[in-house]
Amino acid sequence: MSNDDAVSGDGPSIPRYKPYYYKLVAGKTYFWCTCGRSGSQPFCDGSHKGTAFEPVAYRAEAEAEVLFCGCKHTRSAPFCDGTHNNLSDSYGEDDPDSPANRDIPAALHRIEGRLHLNGRCFVARTAMLPVRTDSNVRWSTVISGATGARFQSQFYFEVARGESPAIHFGDGDTVLLVVAGRGTLEIGSRSFDLAADTGYYVRPGEDFSINNAADEPIRCYVSFCPSVGEPAEEPHFAESRNPYFDDVYPARSVAVGGTERHKMADRSFQLLVDKTLGAEQVTQFIGHIPLSKAPTHRHLYEEALIILSGEGCMWTEDLKGEVSAGDVIFLPAKQPHSLQATHPDGMVVAGVIYPGVNPDINF
Ligand code: FES
């Protein structure tokens, strides 16, 4: 829809198809433009006069970084809710062979399995990370405070036959993605079937263990997001499991394909662990990226992206790095980046964002 089309209909004009980043000042009231005609976007300059539109007042209770909607079609006014992605057919594309992109060199040298790009962004090759062993658990640190994260840690586990020790990280949310194997996940006093292609949620204060009755190891990525303080540097293993289970939230798993997929122009994603399971700040999703390179963008949340299938290239300001199945991309908040899928079938990725409830929102 063009600007003129929007103005000629009943809807608002669309100043742009993405949000405006803004730092709120505590105690200040902002008047967000709803007609789209203001010359002072995203705020009102009085241009709505004579139309049916009125600005939306928003009083900031605290300092915060926010994204004001720029397309004027959000359902969470005045802030972006990702609706802008579906106002056009395509997510947008950047030409990987443009002269500017051709000049961007590839990072080639890994340090302890990690390819470092700009900022604190890196691509970790899971199979190349140092491995430690506790009882029947072989594990690697993928993301931690020591690797540059502020809000989340991630560990890769391979659990051999038998029940693992009790595992906990501290006060916060734990999210698992099982990629292979079958068994049970014991959370406090409860037991859940555990299967591949499923996301699981362990609430603050709960311990868990993984029970494998087969010879094939259970392989999973375990993310931990602390309620306060720093990301965990390593899991804590104990002989016995605390029986505490938070009964207020009895459902703890979502299988891939088990819930609605959200369309995002020519992309789509399914939410796995999110607020419907009780996770208020952390969101896990699985998505498909078609053969393409997204335009450079940023998020307000910190993100870990596991490449489940396909291959591609991760681009930051002036470096790029190849990615393929088994890699994990760590993206600090506000890091400019673009992910390109180079396989004809595209790429399937599983992400964990924190703090965030909607992987649809970018700027
Ligand atoms: S800019 Fe309007 S919903 Fe994102």
**Got a strand count?**
30
The average pLDDT value, as a whole number, equals 94
Task: Let me know the largest β-sheet.
Answer: 9 strands, antiparallel
Strand order across the largest sheet: 5-6-7-28-25-30-23-22-21
Poorly predicted runs of 5 or more residues: 1-8
- How far apart lie the N and C ends? 20 Å
User: What do we call the CATH topology of the largest domain?
Assistant: Jelly Rolls
Figure out the total of helices: 2
Q: Architecture of the largest domain in CATH?
A: Sandwich
**Going by CATH, what is the homologous superfamily of the largest domain?**
Jelly Rolls
> Please, how many domains?
3
Q: Whole-number radius of gyration? A: 22 Å
Structural class: mainly beta
